[in-house]
Design a protein that fits this description.
2 domains, 21 strands, FAD/NAD(P)-binding domain, 6-stranded mixed sheet, 12 helices, 8-stranded mixed sheet
């Protein structure tokens, strides 16, 4: 909203909207420059949980910015065309800050360790120079660490404060926000001035059904992230003329979703016995196998999935039947996988350390709930999930033959993962399009400034985190989102204090 005169209820140099991962980093960075910072968080303090707290705690740590930039440019180049999802200047800024993310954490007392496995897409230039580290205590530990940094700087956090509008002056500069704040059981409207600027760190739109329907490539799409991510920052940025980017992109997964629980679950396909060598090139044999089939009971891809891109194989619309044949898809497995630990990840999402849901160790509770379908024959299992029985029988029979041969001629499944499905009961769980985090939102430049439709910075407005993420269609893999929290939060925190213009309150 544009105003000529405004009376502020509160003022600060910098107002940060959102208290997940990037928000605290931006707040601490600005405070270290001498700013008076105020953070707003829409959730109650007692039940506060974020995508960061539910993450696995890993983040990519480039060994040098030059190689990281080379990798990022290759990742976001569109075919042979001279066009990219993300500007080179933005990628360069990210690479430089991401290369010092580990140092930033350790300099403030955080403890990290080298995590097995590099970034995804190892064939791209520069990929081999980008290892991953993990915060001790995973996402929950990282969230506590960031909270400790904020409290140590004396930065106030106003909980149950939902920002609703950005306030701009007649010159178009963002000078504050309007928020609905609940205190002592009563909701009131507050106008909060920001003499240096406002940082939008309010997360994505994973729980805004209309926005997902309009922008994402396939619907429905579910999330393992916090239910507080309802697109508030996106709407506020649109109101002041922000340009959007990456709206149809996301950290692109397939996941479990059941009607009687509000959040989705990350899948652990092979189970607890699955191990990877440190560089991730080969798998050690497991004691359980699985396949993925569509609504016709047919495999459509290798189960050697890139977990952050598999979603993109799902928007295959059948214009004759008017359905998405791969929505839902089904994970098909047998007793051995059922007995090989929880089907859901225990390191991230609602079943991770935040323990919003305690998935049973032997999957027995989920069997009783009917989340996992079982049958004593493949034909009966197919009937139970509504796929053509003859097709699923043929698919399982062919897969078992490939296992005996040690070769998958259809999709090139890794030999170590060719484990037959021949141990009753046969089981199935529906797989849906989903994500831990959307990445679309207001476009930002290399300084973290949110830009208008004309490409010029909107004065006084900055963005960080998954809201308008720098990532395009592909994500560097596990660790990419948290690396961006550290990098983009620091970029925004630095830039908001370097800007010369300061609004007099």
């Amino acid at each position: 909203m544009l105003v000529r005169h405004v009376s502020w209820d509160l003022t600060a140099d910098v107002v940060v909207i959102g208290y997940g991962g990037a928000g605290p980093v931006a707040a601490v960075t600005a405070a270290e420059h001498g700013a008076e910072v105020l953070v707003l968080e829409k959730q109650p303090k007692e039940t506060h949980h974020t995508n960061t707290s539910m993450a696995g705690g890993s983040f990519i740590t480039p060994l040098d910015a030059k190689s990281a930039l080379e990798y990022a440019k290759a990742l976001y180049r569109i075919g042979a065309e001279d066009i990219s999802w993300t500007d080179d200047a933005v990628l360069r800024s990210f690479a430089e800050y991401a290369a010092t993310g580990k140092d930033w954490i350790e300099a403030r007392g955080g403890s990290v360790f080298l995590s097995p496995g590099p970034v995804d897409y190892l064939h791209l230039p520069g990929a081999a120079t980008i290892p991953r580290h993990c915060f001790k205590g995973l996402g929950v530990g990282l969230a506590r660490f960031l909270d400790d940094q904020v409290r140590a700087k004396g930065i106030p956090v106003l909980y149950e404060a939902r920002a609703t509008h950005l306030i701009a002056n007649v010159r178009g500069r963002v000078i504050g926000i309007e928020a609905r704040v609940r205190q002592d059981g009563q909701e009131q409207r507050l106008r909060i001035g920001a003499s240096r600027g406002v940082v939008l760190a309010s997360g994505g739109f994973e729980y805004d059904e209309q926005t997902k329907l309009q922008y994402l490539r396939v619907y429905p799409a579910y999330s393992t992230g916090t239910e507080a991510n309802t697109g508030d920052g996106l709407r506020m940025a649109i109101e002041v003329g922000a340009q959007l980017w990456h709206m149809n992109c996301l950290s692109a997964c397939m996941m479990f979703k059941f009607p009687d629980f509000p959040m989705a679950f990350s899948t652990d396909y092979p189970g607890r016995s699955q191990k990877r060598y440190a560089r991730g090139e080969e798998a050690i044999p497991t004691v359980s196998g699985h396949i993925i089939v569509d609504r016709d009971g047919k495999r459509f891809t290798s189960e050697n999935l890139n977990g952050r891109a598999a979603y993109y194989e799902l928007p295959c619309f059948d214009t004759h039947r008017l359905i998405y044949p791969r929505v839902p898809s089904y994970m098909i497995f047998d007793r051995r996988r059922l007995e090989n630990g929880p089907l859901a990840s225990v390191t991230a999402g609602p079943t991770g350390p935040v323990r919003l849901y305690e998935w049973s160790a032997d999957n027995s509770v989920e069997l009783e709930k009917g989340w996992i379908k079982t049958a004593n024959s493949v034909r009966d299992l197919a009937r139970g999930i509504g796929v053509p029985p003859a097709n699923l029988e043929r698919t399982v029979r062919n897969f078992n033959r490939y296992c005996l041969q040690g070769n998958d001629p259809e999709f090139g499944r890794k030999p170590a993962e060719l484990i037959p499905l021949d141990s009753r009961p046969y089981c199935a769980v529906a797989l849906w399009p989903g994500t831990p985090a959307t990445v679309g939102g207001p476009r930002r430049n290399s300084k973290g400034q949110i830009v208008s439709a004309s490409g010029h910075p909107i004065p006084g407005l900055y963005g960080c985190g998954e809201l308008g993420s720098i990532y395009g269609m592909l994500c560097p893999g596990p660790g990419g989102n948290l690396a961006q929290c550290f990098a983009s939060g620091r970029i925004a925190g630095d830039s908001v204090m370097k800007e010369r213009t300061r609004v007099r309150q």
